[in-house]
Structures are given as C-alpha cells and as structure tokens.
C-alpha cells in the first residue's frame, strides 16, 4: 500500500504538462494547454491540461484525471507501475513495506535496467537500418502483402547473416549488457576454457517487442525460408517476461479504443498483417499460452476482448488455456469471446480470401465465453447418462471455482444445471462456490442519494477543488453539516476526512485520484471543476468560513425552535436557551468582524 502522503508529495513534484506532453502534442491556449484527445477520435482539440490544477479534462468524451490516472488510462499500466514510473522521473523511491532490497542493490538494479534498455534501443535502430538494404527480406515482406509504411509503424528490421554483426554497433562487444539483454550468446568450451560470443539473431525478420511505455524490451525473429525454429524470441531477461507482455499492444492502444474491442491472435505476423488489412486493434501473445496477467492488461484497455484461434487441435488447446486465464478476471461489465477460423486459415489468409467485411462479421458473431465454457465441459460426454452428466460437472467445477461471484457466473451455473438435470443451488453447493448467488439473500436495493444542491453543492465543489480547506473546519462545523440531512452530512464528512488525510499540501489532482479509486459519486463534480478556471484559495476560504457560520446559525435556530416544543421545564429551557443565544451572538460578532 503506497502511503497517501507519498502520492501527494509526488503529484506536487511532477508537472502533468510534461507527462501528458510525452504522448500528446500540446499547444498553449490561455492558462492551459490543448491537444487532440488520446482517448477518442477527434479533429478539433477538446483535450485540455491545466498546469495549475495538475489535471487533464476532455470536453468531448469527459475523460479526466491527474498524471497517475493518465498513465493508467493511456498506457494500460497498473496503479503501482504508474506511480513508480512517475517517481523515477523525479528521483523519488516508492516506499514498499515488503521491499527488502538494500538501497545499493536497488540502485544497481536500476542501472542494469537502463543499460539493457539502451542496448535494445541501439540494436533495434541497427536492425531497422539493415532492412532498408536487404532485398531478400523486403521481397519476403512484399510477398506477404506488407508495405513499408506498416513495417515502419511496427519498427520492423532485419538481422543479416554473420555471427557478430552487432560488433559494429557496440564498441565494447564484450559488455555484460549484451548477454543480459539476450542480444548475444556466450558459448563456453566443454572444459570451461575459451568463450565464444555470437549474435542470437541472424538472417531473420526482426519484430521489436515494446512495453506499455514504448521501450523495446525484446525481439521476435522469423526465418525467411525454411528453418527451425520458425520464430525465435528473446529469452527471459530483467526487462522481458513473455507471460507479462503482448506484442503490438503499444501500437494498438488508440485503435483498440476506436474499435471498442481488442483482437488477440497467435503470432507477430498476424498482428502486422491485420494492421495492414484494416484491423490495427490486434495483439498477440509471445509464443506462450495466454496468462491471467495478459487478460488483466487487455481489460485495462477495453471492455471487450476477442480471442482468435485456428480451428485445429492446437488452436482448441490454446483457446482452452485462454479460457482458464480469463475466468479469474471475468466481470459483468466485460465481454470476452472466442473466434475459431477454419483449420486451413489464419486471420491474414482469411481476410485476403473472404474480405475485411466478412472477417468483421465473424468477429461480431464470435462465441461468448459462457457458451464456450459449457461447450468445453460437455463436448466429450454423454449427457443422456448419469455418468456423463457427472463427468460434465467434474470438468466444470474448477472452472467455476476460479470465477468471482457475479451475474455471469450465475448464468453459467444455470446453463450447467439445465444441462446436467440439476438446480443452480445444487451446483453451487456441490462445487462449494464462494458467496453463492442463486441462494443468497439479497438486500433491498438502496435508493440513490438526492443530488446535492444549493449551499451543500457549493461547499462540496470548494472542498474538492481545494482539499486543504478541510483543515479549516472544526468539530462544531462538522456537527452543523447534519443540518443538511443525513445523506448530505455523510457526503460532506467523507470529503472532509479525505481532504484532512491529504494534509496542508493536498491538491485537487491528488484528491480527485483518491475519489476516482473509491467512488464514482463525485465523477461529475470533478469533471466540472476540471473544466473551469481555478478559483482563488484565499477568497474561497473566506467564503467557506462565512458559509459554515451561516450553517451553524441555522442549526442553532432550528435547535431553539425544537427546544420550546420539547416539553422541558423552564429551568431546563433557560440553561440551554442562554447557551444558544451566547453562541449566536459570538457567531454574529465574528461575521461582523470579518
């Protein structure tokens, strides 16, 4: 858990204009900076970045947030990765209670990562340069229907023949970073004596693999003619773990947003060819089975994931592994489908033979996860026998146990129950599913709280825009908020607690990120504030003090009315009456002095 104080300090040190400016071309427009929104297609700039609020807001699609939120939404990073990326840029180290790495070792790890990244970048530039003069490689790519434009978009290159071409790229060919990055291999004699170093990639089309920040972290190399292996990938390195990365995700981010879904294929060439043919929203796993981390990354980019597999046995096995990886990540607001092409086709050949429109139709008619799961568990069993139905349930049990309680899980349970002549409650009990849905006692739905209006709304706006204002509110002020009613008081007290937790250096950017992570109730308010000029803190502070004084006076007046109708003795009324009148006079005197 990263302390809120660290996040506040981080957001006060970084400049969101610099962060967003790495990915979006910004131009000064008055007090803010403007650009084309990276989260939806537009021709006229509606995306604004405020250096004073340290916040971005799009008037077109209402996307908004601070620097951390921007990295999460734009690059698909997780929250911790986004914080670490920003912290590294300003020389801060993210505190981690579980991190036992000594400072010197951490510094060494960072230096190693930098050296490996630089080596991969230099190698990528070299391979790209070599492709321009490799007639055999260019002929191969043209034969596959690829243009120079798409090859350049994906940074494709060529590793020529020869054992040590990288010697011309790196003055010190013996440097350790070349081995650690997987660019070269050290072969040692059986007696452990002489060591021979040579390039890993030779006579191959090179596909650079980028992380979510666009850095080259690995390569995939394809032979031009016959040869084994057909594809050769970088080994696992400190930069590159196959189970965590997806080929083409960096290049496909905007296309995924535009299309509303991501298409997951089985290889590098599928991704590049589909981009050439009008489907730039494709990505691929890196010669390994789809993992739960892959699915998590994809669902950060879009609410709809479609897996495309060949219709042969290998494709079916890959689809089953993808299904198992998806189940822990499934939720009711996400859609996951499976597309099976004829055994003789991959996506590239299918589109070229039948056309983009037919392939688009196949995508939209892909099999939903629920249907695929039930088909997988029932396919080889005889449902007309008790033994066959028991086998189906046996196969389905671990799959359903890996799902979180949800409406979709309930739908699958109902389908399985119908298929195996059981009831949903029997399935959930037999499978020992956590938090059974079909038999759960449901609480009555809570009615939505009334929207804030008037004075309450104004106070809410100022507390969000200027979190340090919360430090100006005493216990009497917080108690007076009950004058608005229980729902309003709860809303105001929550904001005050959030603002006070941020402290004197709390900012609109920090508070808005916290609110975004914990509740969607304030999204509209945050968006409105983000789109308006920044208010003056001192003026708002004076207004808030006056507003709180009004609330206290109104609360005292209400209490006075209740006091006379409470049936108390004159002595009891008299004591409290004098206290109320004294407090009223003090508040009125304070108001006159202000």
From TrEMBL:
Higher taxonomy: Bacteria, Pseudomonadati, Pseudomonadota, Betaproteobacteria, Burkholderiales
TM region positions: none
Organism, as annotated: Massilia violaceinigra
Listed InterPro entries: DNA_primase_core_N_sf, DNA_primase_DnaB-bd, DNA_primase_DnaG, DNA_primase_Znf_CHC2, DnaG_bac, DNAG_N, DnaG_primase, TOPRIM_DnaG_bac
Family designation: Belongs to the DnaG primase family.
Protein name per the record: DNA primase
The protein's Enzyme Commission number: 2.7.7.101
NCBIfam families (UniProt xref): dnaG
Complexes and interactors: Monomer. Interacts with DnaB.
Gene3D superfamilies: 3.40.1360.10, DNA primase, catalytic core, N-terminal domain, DnaG, RNA polymerase domain, helical bundle, Zinc finger, CHC2-type domain
Pfam families: DnaB_bind (PF10410), DNAG_N (PF08275), Toprim_2 (PF13155), Zn_ribbon_DnaG (PF01807)
Cited function: RNA polymerase that catalyzes the synthesis of short RNA molecules used as primers for DNA polymerase during DNA replication.
Toprim domain ranges (all copies): 260-342
GO cellular component, one term: primosome complex
Domain remark from Swiss-Prot or TrEMBL: Contains an N-terminal zinc-binding domain, a central core domain that contains the primase activity, and a C-terminal DnaB-binding domain.
């Amino acid at each position: 858990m990263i302390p809120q104080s660290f996040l506040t300090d981080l957001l006060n040190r970084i400049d969101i204009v610099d962060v967003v400016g790495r990915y979006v071309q910004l131009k000064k427009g008055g007090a803010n900076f403007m650009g084309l929104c990276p989260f939806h297609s537009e021709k006229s700039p509606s995306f604004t970045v405020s250096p004073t609020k340290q916040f971005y807001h799009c008037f077109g699609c209402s996307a908004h947030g601070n620097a951390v939120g921007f990295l999460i939404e734009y690059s698909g990073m997780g929250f911790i990765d986004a914080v670490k990326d920003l912290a590294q840029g300003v020389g801060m180290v993210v505190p981690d209670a579980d991190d036992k790495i000594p400072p010197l070792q951490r510094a060494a790890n960072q230096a190693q990562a930098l050296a490996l990244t630089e080596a991969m970048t230099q190698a990528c530039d070299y391979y790209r340069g070599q492709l321009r003069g490799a007639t055999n490689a260019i002929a191969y790519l043209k034969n596959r229907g690829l243009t120079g434009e798409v090859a350049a978009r994906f940074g494709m290159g060529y590793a020529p023949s020869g054992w040590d071409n990288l010697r011309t790229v790196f003055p010190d060919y013996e440097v350790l970073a070349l081995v650690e990055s997987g660019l070269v291999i050290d072969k040692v004699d059986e007696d452990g004596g002489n060591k021979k170093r040579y390039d890993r990639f030779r006579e191959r089309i090179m596909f650079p693999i980028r992380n979510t920040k666009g850095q080259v972290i690995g390569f995939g190399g394809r032979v031009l003619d016959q040869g084994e292996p057909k594809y050769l990938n970088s080994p696992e390195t400190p930069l590159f773990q196959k189970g965590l990365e997806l080929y083409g995700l960096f290049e496909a981010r905007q296309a995924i947003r535009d299309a509303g879904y991501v298409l997951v294929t089985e290889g590098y060439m599928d991704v590049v060819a589909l981009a050439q043919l009008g489907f730039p929203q494709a990505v691929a796993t890196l010669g390994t089975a789809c993992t739960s981390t892959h699915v998590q990354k994809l669902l950060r980019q879009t609410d709809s994931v479609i897996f495309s597999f060949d219709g042969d046995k290998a494709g079916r096995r890959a689809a089953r592994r993808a299904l198992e990886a998806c189940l822990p990540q499934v939720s009711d607001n996400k859609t996951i489908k499976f597309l099976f092409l004829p055994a003789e086709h991959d996506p590239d050949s299918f589109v070229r033979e039948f056309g983009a429109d037919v392939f688009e139709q196949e995508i939209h008619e892909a099999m939903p996860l629920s249907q695929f799961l039930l088909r997988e568990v029932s396919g080889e069993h005889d449902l007309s026998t008790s033994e066959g139905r028991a086998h189906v349930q046996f196969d389905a049990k671990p799959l359903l146990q890996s799902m979180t309680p949800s409406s979709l899980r309930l739908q699958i349970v109902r389908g399985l129950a119908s298929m195996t002549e059981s009831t949903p409650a029997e399935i959930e009990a037999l499978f020992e599913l956590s938090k059974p849905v079909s038999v759960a006692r449901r609480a009555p739905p809570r009615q939505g709280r009334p929207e804030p209006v008037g004075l309450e709304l104004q106070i809410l706006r100022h507390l969000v825009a200027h979190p340090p204002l919360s430090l100006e509110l005493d216990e009497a002020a917080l108690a007076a908020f009950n004058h608005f009613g229980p729902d309003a008081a709860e809303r105001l007290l929550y904001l005050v607690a959030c603002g006070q937790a941020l402290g004197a250096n709390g900012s609109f950017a920090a508070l808005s990120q916290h609110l975004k992570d914990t509740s969607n109730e304030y999204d509209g308010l945050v968006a409105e504030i983000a789109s308006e000029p920044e208010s003056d803190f001192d003026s708002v502070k004076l207004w808030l003090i006056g507003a709180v004084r009004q609330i206290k006076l109104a609360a005292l007046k209400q209490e006075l009315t209740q006091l006379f109708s409470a049936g108390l003795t004159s002595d009891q009324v008299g004591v409290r009456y004098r206290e109320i009148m004294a407090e009223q006079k003090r508040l009125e005197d304070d108001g006159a002095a202000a």
